[in-house]
Design goal:
CATH superfamily: Class II aldolase/adducin N-terminal domain
Radius of gyration: 17 Å
Order of helices and strands: HEEEEHEHHEHEEHH
Oligomer: single chain
Largest sheet: 8 strands, mixed
Number of domains: 1
Strand content: 15-25%
CATH topology: L-fuculose-1-phosphate Aldolase
Strand order of the largest sheet: 4-3-2-1-5-8-7-6
CATH class: Alpha Beta
Shape: globular
Helix content: 40-55%
Structural class: alpha+beta
Number of helices: 7
């Protein structure tokens, strides 16, 4: 079941242009451990053999070599008991903002207020390094989507479907933000508009 869902989400990420080549990784928390994509796999063309079961120390239990970012996934699960699925991609627009070290926090549309309020940028660290894990996990404690400087973005949720929707919406937010800058700058929502949206968000939840 977990492998099939990861394969499905990988295809959807590819079809939405949220992943490219062999970049990115996906994981799901389970009673058995963590199911995560293998090193060097293309998310848009996954097979069951391309998904590995690891424990919370990152050791492979079943399958081949897990993603090089496996320790980022294990650390997020340890810090966030409410998180059961993680998606990491190098999608074009989020990676653009990550490469400019610019957080997404401008109140330009209701979606970013309702879903994110802010998408921060974690400081740069070498991919797969312990420092990258530390830098990113610190922001994940208070945000479900975080960009990694000069790298990409990670989205977390209670299930894999919601993680996908957050990544998709975050990429859309980044694209719209960039487009507004091309057109001379967005007209921001007012403080009262933002207050109303936050009240709506709190009432929904």
């Amino acid at each position: 079941m977990y492998k099939e869902k990861i394969i499905e989400i990988g295809k959807r990420l590819y079809l939405k242009n949220l992943t490219i080549g062999t970049s990115g990784n996906i994981s799901i928390r389970s009673d058995e451990g963590i199911f995560i994509t293998a090193s060097g796999t293309a998310l848009g063309n996954l097979t069951p053999d391309g998904i590995v079961l690891i424990n919370y120390e990152g050791k492979e239990i079943i399958g081949g070599k897990a993603s090089s970012e496996k320790m980022l996934h294990t650390e997020i699960y340890k810090r966030r008991p409410d998180i059961n699925a993680i998606i990491h991609t190098h999608s074009a627009y989020l990676t653009t903002f990550a490469s400019c070290h610019k957080a997404l926090n401008e109140p330009i549309m209701s979606e970013n207020i309702l879903y994110f309020e802010e998408i921060p940028v974690a400081p740069y660290a070498m991919p797969s390094s312990a420092k990258l894990v530390e830098n990113t996990a610190e922001f994940i404690e208070n945000h479900d989507v975080v960009m990694m400087a000069n790298h990409g973005a990670v989205a977390c949720a209670d299930n894999i479907e919601n993680a996908f929707l957050k990544m998709e919406t975050a990429e859309y937010y980044a694209q719209v933000t960039l487009n507004t800058k091309i057109l001379g700058g967005a007209k921001f929502l007012s403080d009262n508009d933002i207050k109303d949206l936050i009240n709506l968000k709190n009432n929904i939840h």
